[in-house]
Amino acid sequence: MNDGGVVRTEKTYCRICEAHCGLDVTIDGDAVVAVKPDKTHPVSRGYACIKGSALGELHHDPDRVNHPLKKVNGTWQRIGWPQAIAEIGSRIRTLQKTHGRRSVAHYYGNPTAFSMQNFLYSAAFMQALGSPNVFTSSSIDLNNKFHVADAMYGMLDVHPVPDFAHCEFFMCLGSNPMVSQMSVVAVTHVMEKLSAIEDRGGRVIVIDPRRTETAQHVGEHHFIRPGTDAWLLLGMAHVVAHELELDPAAIHAHANGLTAFLAAVKDWTPERVAPLTGLSAERIRELATAYARARGAVLYMSTGVNMGPFGSIAYWLVQGLSLITGNLDARGGLVFSRGAFDVTKLIKVLEGKKVDGPRTLKDGWRQEAGAFPAAALADEILIDHPQRIRALIISAGNPVHSIPGNRLAEAFEHLELRVCIDLYLSETAQQADYVLPATDMLERSDFPLSHLNFQAEPHAQYTAAVLAPKFERRPEWWIFTQLAQAAGAPLLGPTLMNWPARLSRVFDRLPLVRGLQPDDVLALLLRLGGKTTLAELKRNPQGVALPAVEPGNFLGKRVPSADGKVNLAPATVLKDLTRLAAAAGDYAAETAGLRVIGRRERRSHNSWMHNNRRIKHDSGISALMHPADAVKRGIADGDLIEVGTGRNVAIPVRITEDIMPGVLCVPHGWGHAQSGLGKASMLPGSNINEALPDVALHMEPVSGQAIMLGHVLEVRRVGARQRVA
Ligand SMILES: Nc1nc2c(c(=O)[nH]1)N[C@H]1C(S)=C(S)[C@@H](COP(=O)(O)OP(=O)(O)OC[C@H]3O[C@@H](n4cnc5c(=O)[nH]c(N)nc54)[C@H](O)[C@@H]3O)O[C@H]1N2
Ligand SMILES: Nc1nc2c(c(=O)[nH]1)N[C@H]1C(S)=C(S)[C@@H](COP(=O)(O)OP(=O)(O)OC[C@H]3O[C@@H](n4cnc5c(=O)[nH]c(N)nc54)[C@H](O)[C@@H]3O)O[C@H]1N2
Ligand code: SF4
Ligand SMILES: [Mo]
Q1: What gap in Å lies between CA 710 and CA 581, rounded to an integer?
Q2: 436 shares a domain with 378
Q3: What's this model's pTM, rounded to 2 decimal places?
Q4: Which of 150, 413, 507, 673 has its CA 20 to 30 A from that of 725?
Q5: CB 504 within 8 A of CB 113
């Protein structure tokens, strides 16, 4: 292990969540001896959470996949890279020759967004194969945001971020920043930033069916009934648009569709939406008025709303309200960050004319951000159609575990080739024919490409690989390049294919066409951006601060839509208001079961940090239930309950007034008995996605986002105080 005790400390940054914290990694020979927050990092300034500090244990985890594996007669056999690449390549080639290009599909998961090389080279790989069958975890997370950004601003990747330093009013819907560090905004020290708003006399409002860790530490909290945020925002929009003063001239200067926007929100008075949401009409009116009058106000929504039934409507209202109140592109409101280079500008130049893209075979779903909805994947495998999916390559994802329902696990059995590129034998990898070992973040170079225009405090950081790959782990750019070659895929993909104009496509052909390695691509992009160079970043491994985000850089200047204006009335979203109106009765009704929502935990990251020896997970998970619901069911604190309607999972319960009556809160990502991981498989806990209804039956029609929150499930007592084995 140790090559003679040469101890060195290298700078890098954590790529688990969007905070991108700077880290100092102390290495003795080839062993990681410490990972500490980097005090010299220009933005994270000495902060990192337990997960970032546990990257050494990730690197040395005895349960990592270290060699290519092939399943032979139901057991894993170690094979060499040349054999793995040749066999998989030839299977892909044969399947595509026999059944067409679409027969090979790719699913990439959440960590892809944090790996520049994975992101670029997997896209290039699929472009080379000429298959539009790309699926991602984005559609079980935030597809509504991509769709609405495209529909309103003309580009999927345009999302304003809060101007934390100047706002007076910050309303947070469906997010728990203290635990998650938020999403679609890269920010550190977020609780300090929220407290500072209060300290300077402003307001922080948390809207959540649970009194979250965030709500316990800052601001005021209002319960909301799950799935009803769109109504709350409609009620607020009604007040702002029809009860307060607007400045139509200012709005018309930068936006189209004001008349349609005003008409769409007209009937949704606070009195009408109040009983649906659980907030009083007075409170909704008060919040709307305070929001409109504050000098600098932010509405921020995240997965608690995205994963509900009307995520696109809600995000449209967040953007629309910001614009009509003058809080878009304004100090203290939502602002447009640009980072080391203006990704939007680059996309606009490269994407050319937008075209109608490919559709799924079943139900004709479109792509968002270059990918079909993950909720449609199982049916694209199971459908009786000559072009159905027969091979699935999965990288950095655990879809069998992360997607509600069990249809995907069933569909897996109908695949002819299953390949998983991962660090671990995840639940998904367990079902594969081949598992290929990827490098972890200490073993690969990187740059936060996907998050440049979400940085609350713009900065740039390049990290080299601080360690050589252990065993036979390989960087993903290499794996995808090799597989493409072995599959006989032309390096320049079929350029005439009418793919939709999407982010991934922009970079698609760059790497493979020119044979460029990740650092070459980065050097090129940075040169185009003109704010820093790869050489400068290499000289400053702790990262460099870039100019702060200034308001006034977007409206009338660089809105990427065809006419340079914001569309306040996107047709696809407005159409969905009919579904929303029809659903009001369902949401107003009492239910026999409880509405299930999720939560995240500091010591977890979706489904994959549970094997880490440094992080204590022994306490397992519990469902949170209100005392009134417990009494009704004869349930006591600590009892084991069964949740589900048909397919059930068993979970211990904690009774607390921090959750709304009628709601049950269960974190996702647990339940690893099948994973074969030494530590994780022994932990108590169940996978709530086994009990939630299948996502194929619950897709938000506007964006294909899976509806995963607020489903009514039956809840029963199983027994007294016991642990789930
Ligand atoms: N019920 C419920 N379900 C949910 C959610 C919820 O709130 N409730 N949240 C959803 C959300 S927001 C998301 S983003 C999805 C996530 O869904 P997925 O992305 O499908 O799943 P993850 O659990 O993030 O799994 C990531 C996998 O990547 C592997 N990995 C980590 N780093 C690397 C790397 O660098 N390279 C490679 N090749 N592999 C790597 C890990 O070992 C793990 O197996 O889950 C969703 N599922
Ligand atoms: N420690 C940790 N950090 C993470 C992750 C992790 O697993 N662990 N995952 C990362 C990922 S992939 C993502 S996408 C981000 C997500 O980051 P966030 O979007 O902040 O996700 P959560 O922390 O789950 O917060 C969602 C909140 O929505 C609430 N909620 C549920 N239903 C509703 C509803 O109908 N209306 C409203 N208003 N609220 C509702 C829940 O109670 C919960 O408090 O976090 C990232 N950061
Ligand atoms: S997981 Fe923790 S250390 Fe890593 S970026 Fe997120 S907050 Fe920072
Ligand atoms: Mo996510």
Answers
A1: 17
A2: yes
A3: 0.96
A4: 413
A5: no
Q: Which of 116, 118, 20 is nearest to 522 (CA)?
A: 116
Is 597 near ligand 2, meaning CB less than 6 Å away?
yes
CA distance 11 to 588: 53
Domain co-membership, 540 together with 655: no
What is the CATH number for 37?
A: 3.30.200.210
Widest pairwise Cα distance in the chain: 74
585 occurs within a structural domain:
no
Query: Would you say residue 55 lies in a domain?
Result: yes
What is the residue type of 123?
Answer: A
238 shares its domain with 383: no
Is 706 among the domain residues?
yes
The CA-atom distances, in angstroms, between 358 and each of 102, 205, 491 are 11, 41, 21
- Ligand closest to Cα of 17 equals 3
Q: How many residues does the chain have?
A: 725
What would the mean pLDDT of 389-412 be, rounded to a whole number? 97
Same domain, 447 and 568: no
Ligand 3 atom at minimum distance from 48 CA: 3
Q: In this structure, are 604 and 486 located in the same domain? A: no
CATH code assigned at 617: 2.40.40.20
- Pair (257, 401) in one structural domain: no
pLDDT, average across residues 130-143: 96
Lowest mean pLDDT among 3-7, 123-127, 312-316, 571-575: 3-7
Q: pLDDT tens digits for 105-120? A: 999 999 999 999 898 8
Domain count, the chain: 4
- CA 255 / ligand 1 centre spacing (Å): 37
CA of 375 to the centre of ligand 1 (A): 15
Residue numbers of the domain that contains 228: 143-339+558-573
**Exposure string over 550-582, b if 16+ CB within 10 A, otherwise e:** ebeebbeebbbbeeebbbbbbebbbebbeebee
Q: Is 209 in the pocket of ligand 2 (CB under 6 A)?
A: yes
Question: What pLDDT sits at residue 380?
Answer: 98
75 and 172, same domain (yes or no): no
Instruction: Tell me the best of 170, 225, 303, 700 to mutate to test the pocket of ligand 2, counting ligand atoms within 8 Å of each CB and taking the most.
Output: 303
159 plus 289 within the same structural domain: yes
Tell the residue nearest (CA) to atom 2 of ligand 3: 49
* Ligand 2 and 179: CB distance under 6 A: yes
| pLDDT value, residue 520 | 81
The alpha carbon of 499 and the centre of ligand 3 are apart by a number of angstroms equal to: 35
- Mean pLDDT for the chain overall: 93
